[in-house]
Fold:
Amino acid sequence: MAQTTDEIRGIGHSVKRKEDDRFIRGRGNYIDDMQLPGMLHMAILRSPYAHATLNSVDTSAAAAVPGVIAVVTGELMAQHNLAWMPTMSGDTEAVLVTDKVRFQGQEVAAVIATDPYIARDAVDLIQVDYDPLGVVVDPQSAAADGAPVIRDEKEGQTDNHIYHWESGDKDATDKAFTDAELVVKLDTFYPRSHPSPLETCGCIADVDPATGQATIYMTSQAPHAIRTVFALVAGLPEENIRIVSPDIGGGFGNKVPVYPGYVVATAASLLLGHPVKWIEDRSENLISTGFARDFHMHGEMALKRDGTMLGLRTSLQADEGAFHADAQPSKFKVGLFHIVTGSYELPSAHVVADGYYTNKAPGGVAYRCSFRVTEASYLIERLVQNAAYELGMDPADLRKKNFIPEDAFPYESATGFIYDSGNYEGAMNKALEMIGYDQLRREQEEMRAQGKYWGIGLASFTEVVGAGPHKDYDILGLKMNDGAELRIHPTGKAILKISAKTQGQGHETTFAQIVAEEIGIQPEDIKVQHGDTDNTPYGLGTYASRSTPTVGAATAMVSRRVLEKARKIAAHLLEVDEDDVEFTRPNFTVKGAPEKAVTIQDVAFAAYTNFPDGMESGLEGSYYYDPPNLTFPFGTYAVAVEVDIETGVWKVQRMVAVDDCGVRINPMIVEGQIHGGLTEGYGIAAMEQITFDENGNCIGANFTDYLLPTSWETPMFELGETVTPSPHHPIGAKGVGESATVGSPAAYVNAVIDALQPFGVTNIDMPLTSAKVWQAIQDAQAATA
Ligand code: CDP
Structure:
């Protein structure tokens, strides 16, 4: 795909990541590396109960510890009208508890001290008197009659129901089910999972009492949105708030919400006149910050006997935790779940979703994929696989029969998305060819005859990323558009300022490559600045694979804007009409006389030294991009798994992933993103699990209980690609995000079920621990006996 030379290295070149130079030398600049003069340290006391009335908080012993400067309680925060704050979903959330705790790990009080260890020790001396209350840890019990009402402080809230949301055409879908020759049903649960960034959340709040200037260094994926929320919460003038997100050690959605720790540290800095640092530890991160998934799903598919899909019906229950705090576009209560029709020509679909409060930390963040798209892709692929078994059709053939054909794009799905482009059969054929599907199916038969159980699992998915067009997409009313500013210096070097915030995705490299592609300046001569609200254009941040579709587009557009002026200056230097100037990066030449040339660097110098009369000096511009549509990456994954039916242990023998994210800006970075997503997909399929006991105790508050796959367990990946550009995107790219996360869990589960077909196992929920797989075999055998 590369169009620029190996010297310019624009789009399509696997340029080594510019940012890695500082990371591999240990020169990254993370919050916890930063020290400010006079800085104090904050530690938080968290509730051991999941639901309990707070009777009293005695801070006297903690306050008496030498080195402790202040102990902050909910009561103190309430005196400043800061005990509650708005969430990104328009709900309210307690900053420090005043009335009752609503989940285990909730913030009750905070100690500010001269040293982090003193602060943490003093936290243990705070005496709290609680009265435990009844606990609810799943949406079914939350909805039951007589369930304790978790959010009883909210006016008019008499139960635990948060929202009801529907999408699609109910009548048309009901008719499809009436006409159906086969209906396939599935109840499944996508378990709660935790983004688990290597760096936990934290901040340093530095409020100058003399000027009112608040500089908050924060682990945030969305610094601009946070600045606006802070202005609204604290009533501070927005121009006096500066949010700086320095290097971030992974976000994955975990660093989008506003956490109470940020607010308490800022209030403490304001009151004490010192910078205040707060860094949570690993267990605090696991127990109290944004979770993902926790989605209970019922799906039904209507089909004809020949395999033609007629309709899809889903009903969902979302466990949102004690506060509805996820950052979904406000119009869509369960995010973009209505992509659930996937890659299929489904004439009708209807989605019904209900959200519930439970006594758990707030969840629902866009973890390693767009908003709820992982859950949707999982459900449809499990249903398709089950339909294939019931029809006795090869799962690959059933998919191919129903794929939206290549010539049907743009295609309007039954739930109203306009898919911009796709070639689903192309991606599937490539995956089948790479894994040797036909041969593998033959070998599977032979192995079964020898008592070896291999399964082959497929998943084809269509993601929806790049939120989004202003008419439909906002968070708290803020439109999801993003900006880029480009300034070329006299010596031909450039600075690009973007609204996105990299957390490891390599934006400093890929966005420089977009500029290189457009105007011919090499990536190493372009500094990419991000994460500082005083010095970057406004935007809604980086999550849900939106950076490339929005900020990548803004970067291409601002480059084109700057190029328009550069062309005029080139014409002036070449002493010809602008229409006679040609641009072949990095040279402007005269049409028909290519020996007459100036480079973009010559033009940059002239922009400050020798520009036409009447022209403003300088070479720079800005652009805010409002995407005309979302983008729709897709792919097919194929896995081969061997299951030991004596023990339930399963082993991945092959894993093939074919992704199509349109034009790849940096193929190496895209592969890295896919590796990350595949690892997460494997992790959730095989081992990751955070559960809660009946008292709301979080089981999974450390890495010995919450298992993440390391390189040791993770199976090898074989990657393939197809390239179907997004027609409306200025460079044809789609976000790659972590589309792998979408397809791979379904492919693994489908493979294990495929292996266990002879035993009649049709449904197992993740994580597929060996005990669970073994039990499924026993249950299926008992049911058929
Ligand atoms: O929003 P986020 O950066 O997490 O996701 P993304 O926009 O999907 O991009 C992830 C990384 O892959 C970024 O560095 C992108 O520039 C890069 N990418 C690419 O090189 N080519 C694509 N077609 C899509 C993404």
In short: DSSP finds 19 helices and 34 strands in the chain.
